[in-house]
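Incident log, structure service

09:12 report received: a user says their structure output differs between two submissions of the same chain.
09:20 pulled the input from the user's history:
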Amino acid sequence: MNPIEERTLDILNRSTDIIRDLPNSATWLDQINTLKSKVHTKCTLAVGGRVKAGKSTFINTLLGEKLALVGTSETTATINYFVYGKPVDPNKPVKVVYKDGREVYESQAFMDAFQGNDARTMALSKGILYFERALENPILKEIDLVDTPGTGAVVDEHQGAAESAFGINDLQDLRKEHSEQTQDLVKKADAVIYLVGAVANQDNKQFLDNFQQACDGASALNAIGIISRIDEEEATLYNSQSQAEYVADSLKEQLSGVMPVSAALYEAVQKHSAQFEQWRAQLQTIPQDIFDAYVSKMQDAWDGKYDTALVKKCPNLLDVTTRRRMKGDIPWGVFRAIIKTLYKSNSAEEATQELLKLSNFEEVRRVLRDQFFARAKAIKCTVLLSQLNKILLLIRNDALYTLKRSAKKSKDWIQLIDKNIRPNDASAAAELTAFIQSNIKSSAEIDRIEKAIMSQLVLPLEQLMIEIEQTNMDYKMLQIVHRMKDAFGTYYEELCNLFGMYGSKPRLTDEQKMNRQMFWQSKSMRYADPQMQEIAAYAAGVYGKL
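09:34 re-ran on a clean worker, output below:
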């Protein structure tokens, strides 16, 4: 068992033992037992965002399999879970869970048929609660991945057809249902990948605020933003990092960071890189001015719209049939980036590496692995501990307060019994006193319970939360160090080791720790870059705590 899981379960077990002594404890015990049942469940990672944000393309690329249907319009009309496992029947790997409670196993084609925004699909999807697709993908060993319908669904373009064919009076209800499904699912998730547009808006903030509130104080580290489809605008593709920094600054209270990505470019490179050498040779037969004309215009130029004029300038121009075959079904923005890179590159291998870097998908995959997949247990336990802390706070502020008032009243009652009943009927007085004492806890008993809650539950819980938060902060600093590897130079490995990248932190003598602490304190005052100052100050603090 993971150490964090073990300590979380221990605190939950002790909670049931202590709280069982409280009157009317059934409600509290039910809630805590629910938390206990979730300790060993996997972390749920929801992929959210507005419709047409590229969620399904992103999931397909992340998992390396064509599982979620993609298209030019919104396609996810249902909630789709992707979980680890081997289907009992390979021909029917999809579990369909209906709103009426039925569970039926169907084919992948059945699931695909329910992805779309036409009126018939939208109407039929109303009866489905979610799809669950099991597959033996290593990413899914620690997390369950969820593709959501998205918020702001575009369904009203088919409203009239649906009204006549299916009797749906107002497809705006369907838009609302999809948005509510997404919001509800994100609230229940342990962490979220949120696909945002190139410019952050109020909807982004509201969506993520709801997530944090629902997660009972979960930190922004459990949410990351992805600017997807950066290939659709050339200016965005080549300035994606600055765009990401702008969006990250707008949503810094809600997200741990924002990363740009072109899943479509990454997929295209994976699929066609074997042909790049041939493409490069063919492209470099095109004169520079004609090539510039092709890539500066829309796709119709590449498809031959202006060839009559261009052939006069270059009789041996690469023919339109070859050009169209080269492009195939690659989106124009992606294809333009590929041919521009191949045209100026010294080799196909050089172009491949540049395009992979431009797509940024490997970096996104690394961050997701470190931030979510490797931290899945910590994320899950953080959420559970936060919920337990909320329960304990209610018990201390409500239940114990009520008990203390009852204990005070019982003392008053016993005094009245001693004064008014005991002189005339000692037996009755003794009976009444025994009844009160057996049904109402004394102040001494309440103090014992209160001390046990503090010493055995609240303090260990807070200590574990502090340790998890420290690990989270180490991780956050580590991400900055990774981004600024060249700037830190020879100190990069020291910082990675100090922030726990290799599992355990360095073991040093007191003198060594003091020397390194003073060194990094000095660095924090000498660095000009604010982020390097932050890292240096944090490093000094970590050395001080070793």
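09:41 both user submissions now match this output. Likely a transient worker issue. Closing.
09:42 reviewer note: The longest helix spans residues 376-420. Confidence is low (pLDDT under 50) at residues 153-171.
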